[in-house]
Design goal:
alpha+beta, elongated, 3 domains, about 280 residues, Structural Genomics Hypothetical 15.5 Kd Protein In mrcA-pckA Intergenic Region, Chain A, 17 strands, about 20% helix
């Protein structure tokens, strides 16, 4: 399958690839395998690109997950991205021979729409977390977004209902997070863990719980869940980190907004996903 990348400025083709954070060895192999086209002709590593040109990459790929029967809710799509609303209770992937994951749902959509590419995603969210999930259609976009995640140059905001009322109505939680030595499925605040930064703001307060917006600049496993539990306000429904199922039998955490600069169009992309009904009912 061929993916086209319009060019809007004068630059060397090596600079084009560097923008996507593609390694030199991979670039060399792409030229060697004649995967790179410039205006429908084989490109050379020293080519100069100009406004109006088109770089095309030939991807020798196929859908690499079995197909589910589920439909997806699309929040944003173009030639490079498919951003969807993940429902609570479904995992991102569960092995390529199974058909009970979000990747299987994406595979069905790709198949129905003639997209012959591997399923790619730069990050993931927990099984019981709902909301925005980004899929990258091509390898260049995946590399770009992975770098964006690592450099914290993407805005990621969540909404969650937490137990009780927070002492401070807004603030920053900067506790390191590492694996719990007693439970391999659980994370914990640890001085030997990795840096983790969560900014929060209380949106509304109720009798014995609060609606909170969280913005994360790091993407540690279970980060918001661990941080909110550590300060004494575990997320409602999150039995792993200290809250019972009085209000919900699923973790009330929702990825509701992302913002980043598009790698091809160089425009700000903002995607917002409203809370699911079972969270709205607590308002």
């Amino acid at each position: 399958m061929i993916i086209n990348y319009p060019i809007y400025k004068e630059e060397r083709i090596e600079e084009f690839f560097q923008h996507f954070h593609i390694g030199k060895s991979k670039i060399y192999k792409m030229f060697l395998d004649k995967q790179v086209l410039l205006n429908n002709h084989n490109a050379k590593s020293g080519d100069l690109l100009k406004n109006g040109d088109t770089v095309s990459i030939i991807y020798d790929e196929e859908i690499d997950y079995s197909l589910s029967d589920n439909k997806i809710e699309i929040l944003y799509e173009d030639d490079y991205f498919l951003i969807v609303n993940k429902r609570s209770g479904i995992i991102i992937h569960n092995g390529k021979e199974n058909n009970d994951s979000l990747c299987n749902d994406i595979a069905k959509y790709y198949y129905d729409n003639g997209i012959s590419l591997n399923i790619k995603f730069p990050n993931r969210i927990d099984k019981d977390t709902s909301g925005i999930m980004i899929f990258c259609k091509d390898s260049l976009t995946l590399s770009y977004m992975s770098n964006l995640m690592e450099s914290h140059d993407i805005v990621k905001e969540y909404l969650c209902y937490v137990s009780g009322k927070l002492k401070n109505k807004k603030g920053n939680i900067n506790y390191r997070i590492g694996m719990d030595r007693h439970n391999s499925n659980k994370m914990r605040v640890s001085s030997t863990g990795k840096d983790a930064h969560t900014a929060y703001r209380v949106i509304r307060e109720y009798d014995d719980y609060s609606l909170v917006k969280c913005k994360i600049t790091t993407g540690r496993t279970h980060q918001i869940r661990v941080h909110m539990s550590y300060i004494g306000n575990p997320i409602l429904g999150d039995t792993l980190y200290g809250n019972n199922i009085k209000y919900s039998n699923t973790t009330l955490l929702h990825a509701y907004r992302v913002e980043f600069i598009h790698p091809v169009y160089n425009e700000k992309i903002e995607v917002v996903c409203d809370m699911p009904l079972y969270m709205k009912e607590l308002e």
